[in-house]
Amino acid sequence: MNKPLERLYNGIIKENPTFVLMLGMCPTLAVTTSAINGIGMGLSTTVVLALSNLLISILRKVITDRIRVPSFIVVVASFVTMVQFLLQAYVPAIYSALGIYIPLIVVNCIILGRAESYASKNPPIPSLFDGIGMGLGFTCSITIIGAVRELIGSGTVFGLHLIPIKDVAAGTHGYIPVSIVVLAPGAFFVLGIIMAIINRVKLNNIKKGRKVYDTSGCKESCFGCPHSMICLNSSSENKIINSNKANE
Q1: How do residues 117-161 score in pLDDT, each as one tens digit?
Q2: Between the CA of residue 229 and those of 52, 69, 207, 213, 247, what are the distances in Å?
């Protein structure tokens, strides 16, 4: 599965970093107070992912196992610094909103994880598209979370007022924003609700006999696998389903 389009599909849908692999939770929960923040962080991460995957893949035969992690961090940190300077120079509003989370892209487990599991073992072009796909998947995920939080918390999306807000002083009626949604607890609430919806859709697909992939380990579906109860890579959801089947 090394074709460019397959790598894009893999990162955006099949192995979405946020909704499937549950990686990069720190920026996902911290910067998604608005949709524009989500896009800013997502695209910044996408650039770093794509370029670091490409360079690490090119140097994969030069970098030895003994120094691979420090080498990966140096490569990623170099691209993060470049992105940070570009944001500071050309989009200072986004730079100020994201703050400390821009340099923290260096230790984002999505980037180091793709460098270790894919870029260091595959040719440059597939690695480049793997980084782009993972980055776009991350961007879409946190933009959706940011848009939901912004809409419920302030009645806007990308700064555009979509829902009339109630103004007691002016005597106008309308929507009363749920301010907790744009605070720290709101990130957990929104992420939990979205994950519940995704899991419900996944379970419905399983009941209808559609193939559902779990890519946590063996790249095959854990559902119905006789070894899933003892497999360390199998998710708890899969274990519960297979346990219920075994008891029937």
Answers
A1: 999 999 999 999 999 999 999 999 999 999 999 999 888 888 888
A2: 37, 32, 20, 17, 13
* Contact call for residues 115 and 165 (beta carbons, < 8 A): no
**Burial letters 124-159, b for 16+ CB under 10 A, else e:** bebbbbbbbbbbbbbbbbbbbbbbbbbbbbbbbbee
Token pair belonging to 114: 């793709």
Higher pLDDT, 168 or 209: 209
Q: Quote the tokens at residue 57.
A: 């893949």
Q: Within 13 Å and on the Cβ side, how many CA atoms surround 232?
A: 0
Q: Looking at the structure, tell me whether residues 229 and 155 fall in a common domain.
A: no
Q: Which residue has the higher pLDDT, 46 or 174?
A: 46
Instruction: Give the E-state strand segments of the chain in sequence order.
Output: 156-157, 160-161
Residues 89-111: what's their mean pLDDT? 90
Do residues 102 and 220 both lie within one domain?
no
Q: What pLDDT score does 1 carry? A: 60
The answer to whether residue 217 sits within a structural domain is yes
**133 and 244, same domain (yes or no):** no
Residue 57 host element (H or E)? helix 35-58
Cβ burial, residue 207 (10 Å; 0-12/13-18/19+): exposed
Domain with 220 in it: 213-248
Q: Looking at the structure, do residues 218 and 138 belong to the same domain, yes or no?
A: no
- Residue that has been written with the tokens 């697909």 in this structure: 205
- Angle of helix 109-117 relative to helix 124-154, nearest 10 degrees, comes to 160
Residue 230 lies in a domain: yes
